Amino acid sequence: MTSIITPYEDGPLIVRGDFELRTADGEPIDPSRGTVALCRCGKSAIKPFCDGTHKTIQFKAPGDDSRRR
Ligand code: FES
């Protein structure tokens, strides 16, 4: 199982590839598609998925590895 998770600048985490999405209790969450956007701004109404609210609240986050700065 290989997945690629990409943090988008000022946006969600995009997950591509083979993955399973589960709750903290281990219950499966149906992603409904092969590529999903996971909210990292904390304001989505459809968590864990992104609903675009990050744009409204002008969420800021790097799209790279901030440990390297
Ligand atoms: S990252 Fe898009 S709504 Fe939170």
Automatic annotation (TrEMBL):
Entry GO CC: cytoplasm
GO molecular function per UniProt: 2 iron, 2 sulfur cluster binding; metal ion binding
InterPro entries recorded: FeS-contain_CDGSH-typ, MitoNEET_CISD
Boundaries of every Iron-binding zinc finger CDGSH type domain copy: 22-60
Keywords attached to this entry: 2Fe-2S, Iron, Iron-sulfur, Metal-binding
Protein name in UniProt: Iron-binding zinc finger CDGSH type domain-containing protein
